[in-house]
Amino acid sequence: MKPNLTRVTATLAVLATAGALTAACGSGSSDKSLTVWMYPVIADQAASRTYWQQIEKDFEAANSGLDLKIELQPWDNRDQKVATALSGGKGPDVVLLGPDQIPQYVQNGTLAPVDAAVADARSSFLPGALKALSVDGKLYAAPIYHTVTSTLYNKKLLDKAGIKKPPETWDEIRAAAPKLKAAGVATLDYSASPEASLNLNYYPLLWQAGGTVFSPDGKKAAFNSPAGVEALTFLVDLYKSGAIPKSALNNKNVLPDQALGKQQVAMGFTNVPAEVKTAGDAWGADNVVVGLPLRYRKQVGFGLPGGLGVNAKSKNKAKAEAFLRFMIAPERISGLTQASGFLSPRTDVKATGGDASTAKFTEALTYAYPGEPNAAARQVMSLLSAEIQAALTGKKQPKQALDDAAKQADDLLARQR
Amino acid sequence: MTLSTRSRPSAARRPRAGTAPTTGRRSRQARVGLLFVAPMLVLFTLFRLVPTAGAFLLSLTDYKLSGEWSFVGADNYTRLAHEDLFRESLLVTLTYVVVFVPMTVLLSLGTAMLLDRVVWGRGFFRGVFFLPYVTSIVLAAVIWKWIYDAEDGLLNGLLHLVHVGPFDFLGHSGSVLPSIAVTSAWKGFGYSMLILLAGLQSIPRSLDEAAMMDGANAWQRFRHITLPLLRPVLFFVLVIETIQAFQVFDAMYVMTGGGPVRSSYSLVYLLYDTGFKYFDFGYASAIGLTLFAVVLAVSLVQRRFVGRED
Predict the structure, then answer these.
(1) Could you tell me what percent of chain B has a pLDDT over 70?
(2) Which of the four, A70, A117, A260, B104, has the lowest number of CB atoms within 10 Å?
């Protein structure tokens, strides 16, 4: 974790050397083997191992003579490891990717399109899932699961404040805030740490207000629109009044560490299905209520597909595509949905939980928006996060903060063209 | 540990007539000595010098993830000079160094002097003070983040008992760097303390006792005997702590994510983001090399003023 100067410069230099030496060498797998990098989509380690070992056996049985190696990687430093591997030409043949990673890798020429692998099943996928994993009309990852976020309420705290109906809109949140304050708790959980993804914080509010992060051509920042200012003002007002807890400044979207997990705040608005159990363990299962994504001008929640991408330097592209076809088959999607608790990216495969919260999250999928793919998305998040903090702490007015961030973002986007 | 090299008497270096066997023996000894240091020399060259040279070359390129690259000359350095974020993170780093280094050195020196005087249980206390050093910085940062928490932190809990606060230690630009510096100092002072303790114990007691008999008070003995004799060790500690301070990253990453409003966004944090979040490897290398130059310059200044031999 500690990137001291020597280690960081050394890694950068190794990257350069590896890239230069192996640019034309192809991926590390031999012709008879296929390497896949998978991540803890199934949170339970033992269950994850069992599931992927079975996938290995089943795929090898269907493709005799091929050795499938599914390597289970941690989420930590995922980008760093994938970038290093792809850069060195020694990466896996297939890797699990999210929509926010894909534009940068496509720009760098390290991913191959996978349209052919999903051609037969294209109409069975949620259109939004395919769009999210595409760049310039080409699909770069085959969707195998879909995440979704929605509201999560602490019924005990709402009851304590005498609130019978959980707040579902911005106006209802504003109205609930004084009652909850009188009951000694905050209203809305928020993570303003620069390390927290804005997809789980400011962006859903921006989208609900009708705004976008980027202009339609992706070449300019658009978050400083009136909708953006409205969303940030909403946050700032709540923060100033204590309806968003002060600890929000350093929160990183980790439920148990946050005020929501510690029962100091009544609701979250970008919570994932797995957090229902975490919250239930802390608050008591009866106190956990799942709602639909918040509503303002629009009802939008963040949710994105996870897909399998193919290394552009893979020597086994045909076999990699065969693996993708194998993984997007309804029976595999159903199995992964069951094992992981995530939702299905296919309209012909339904989630299997059967309880009220699973049903609610499945309904929330209708409002899921995967964000706006842009090669500079992460840099823009970093510089915008700092300005959002400036607005929350009163150093700048919301409009000024967003304008300053937009100016920096425009410079960055111009440099990348 | 040898902190300074005394020059040999010049006569020893001059070849004299009739000393051929001695010269031959010396030459053999030199070869044997070289053989002993060769493995370290090879490793140092491979894993320190070559990567540093590689990073320098990388800093002159626009290097893409796919392995494609183009030579851009000093463009990355020119961009650095005009980048507000670089200036901001450099200022944050320098401020942190100014806060952290004196705090850690004084804490280390203070505890080392206390331990030097403790007769009973010195080993126990030395172990206790050293314990944080072997703790993971991530773990330490998580614990201190809770201690500083604005809502239910230990520190605010204690302050509440005396009707003070609450303070958002990590949420204000004025208090965030000192708060992180306290965490890092707590975590790291044990190492410097041990080195300073060894230095203190190597000072002959007779000097102190003689000064005491001459009527020197505690401060005078410290100022005119302990401090001058401790200076080589103190210089070493100062250099090590300064380098560590310039490389601060982990505590900031865990405790604040560089906030609020980049008040704790250090140069290494910028380097990390640039290289591993944005994959701008050439520019990241330029940041690394610039940081190296700054650390080197500061170390030379320290050597000039603290490390000189009278």
Answers:
(1) 91
(2) A70
